[in-house]
């Protein structure tokens, strides 16, 4: 490069790297700028149990916990963790890899010395954010990062469902979303989806009946129809009507999908809702936990040309909403006990101060404990939304 030419930014150099070479490129750039001696990219597996190093496939390095230890702490808290290493005297900085609230993993950077300053940690965090965006984009062109997230093979139905999902989290000033699915490696019909705009958020939870490929195909049709209607600028009730027609025309009422549709006004907290089936919604306000009672309407595709009506309720700053699929509230243990509302309320109360991602995971963990060693026989989806609202305009 000519000495008079400006040095490309970190973001530009990461963008220019081949998709499969992001880790190597990141290592080179971090060595140049921070004297980094070792760089490791850890990605969260589909079950959010471990963080796996991105190395030469088909094998990855040894995984570490996604919840304990320095890397796990950085992942769960979404804050940098600095680990002091005595021999040789270095510091290992663990940095969250996150894209707009969707947690992907952790970047571990070993730097010389044992007195790294806050400004350096901040700059390393900016680098990690830039890398996160490139990892998310690279997933369109290479299987490397998707393969590195797997502790075992996904079922075909699960592969289809994960491709359909928008992510596992989303964050804006007005709200933070965290979501979780189980069984992560064999999910079939449960799905969540969202879309944000300048003044609104649309969120849906869909549960296609059946199991495996049949459920996955049904859910893909329902979600595709809902997205198609939403992107045409159609109102919430009519989105449900058009998706209902699409599912009925394909299955003739023999299969259907339960769906909860929510449309938030970011300025006012007014929520339009359509309850088309069995997902349930809870609201936490202060120390109070209440079920949001919505009029139960018919699932999508059960009958021809079903008409749907919207209802409204409000959320206030500090509220938390938790949506759960039938696989959560309708699951029984080996002894026949239903995962009841009292247990759910205990978990929601105990996790009130934890981030939405961890609350969603905790609900599923409680469900797995309830079921026992048999494992889940039905899909389970949980979506947690922390509502911050938008400050009122000042005059």
TrEMBL record:
InterPro entries: Bact_Sigma-Reg, GAF-like_dom_sf, PPM-type-like_dom_sf, PPM-type_phosphatase-like_dom
Record keyword Hydrolase present: yes
SUPFAM superfamilies documented for this protein: GAF domain-like, PP2C-like
Domain of life: Bacteria
Keyword Ligase: no
Keyword set, alphabetical order: Hydrolase
Domain PPM-type phosphatase: 172-387
SMART domains linked to this entry: PP2C_SIG
PANTHER family linked: STAGE II SPORULATION PROTEIN E, STAGE II SPORULATION PROTEIN E-RELATED
Protein name (Swiss-Prot/TrEMBL): Stage II sporulation protein E (SpoIIE)
Biological source species: Streptomyces cyanogenus
